[in-house]
Amino acid sequence: MFELRVNADVELRLRDESHAKETFWLIRKNEDHLRPWMKWIDKVESVNDSLANIEANIEDWELKTDLHLGIFRDELLIGMISLHNIDYLNHKAYIGYWLDEDNEGRGIITDSVRCLIEYGFTELELNRIEIRAGIHNTKSRAVPERLGFKPEGTLRAAEYVNGEFIDMAVYGLLRDEYINTK
């Protein structure tokens, strides 16, 4: 099973079928916290929905198009992080993430994103990694800003979430920029 060690307490792992209940209940616990930013939140109505998502995530990884990893702290699932739309022809992808509200403010997402960036640039030989966040999602936007991503603009009305269009801030990091800041 695929995994990346973030630090002594946190690791990123490809989830399997045994994580379906844990995933479902973590989403339910955080649904009000996630709803303003995640358009998929209300589509997860049962453990079977989580199981289907996990199976699709495994297939995506086998096809090498996406890498969806659970964020585990002391063996407990506390969030998700993904490398989406891996484009080997153009050497680029984008990162998405969410974290259990009770685990925020500890640097877990920042460290997890840093770990996934390292994997993307070194192992997948990407040249560009992008992060997009709702312009009013200050916590999510703080992550790429902390990690040296460059703000590249705003995509107007780019996501349809909870019955309204939201603007998305776009951040990019190039391999050379990352290597020069290490």
Structure description:
With 182 residues, the chain is of the alpha+beta class. The protein has one domain: 3-Layer(aba) Sandwich (Aminopeptidase). It is built from 6 helices and 8 strands; from the N terminus they run E-E-H-H-H-E-E-E-H-E-H-E-E-H. It has an 8-stranded mixed sheet, with helices on both faces. Strand 7 and strand 8 form a beta hairpin. Helix 1 crosses helix 3 (47-63). The protein is globular, with a radius of gyration of 16 Å.
Top keywords for this entry?
182 residues, alpha+beta, Aminopeptidase, eight-stranded mixed beta sheet, 8 strands
User: Which band does the percent of strand residues land in?
Assistant: 35-45%
Q: What series of H and E elements makes up the topology? A: EEHHHEEEHEHEEH
Tell me the helix content. 25-40%
Radius of gyration: 16 Å
CATH class: Alpha Beta
If classified by CATH, what would the architecture be?
Answer: 3-Layer(aba) Sandwich
Overall structural domain count:
1
Q: Which fold name is given in CATH as the topology?
A: Aminopeptidase
Main sheet characteristics: 8 strands, mixed
Please state the overall shape, judged from the principal axes of the Cα atoms: globular
Low-confidence segments, ≥5 residues, pLDDT <50? none
Sheet with most strands: strand arrangement: 1-2-3-4-5-6-8-7
**Name of the CATH superfamily:** Gcn5-related N-acetyltransferase (GNAT)
Give a short summary of the structure.
The protein is α+β, with helices and mostly antiparallel strands and 182 residues long.
Provide the fold topology:
Layout: E1 3-5, E2 10-13, H1 20-29, H2 31-34, H3 47-63, E3 67-73, E4 76-87, E5 92-99, H4 108-122, E6 128-134, H5 138-146, E7 150-161, E8 164-174, H6 175-181
Parallel strand pairs: 5-6
Antiparallel strand pairs: 1-2, 2-3, 3-4, 4-5, 6-8, 7-8
Helix pairs in contact: 1-3
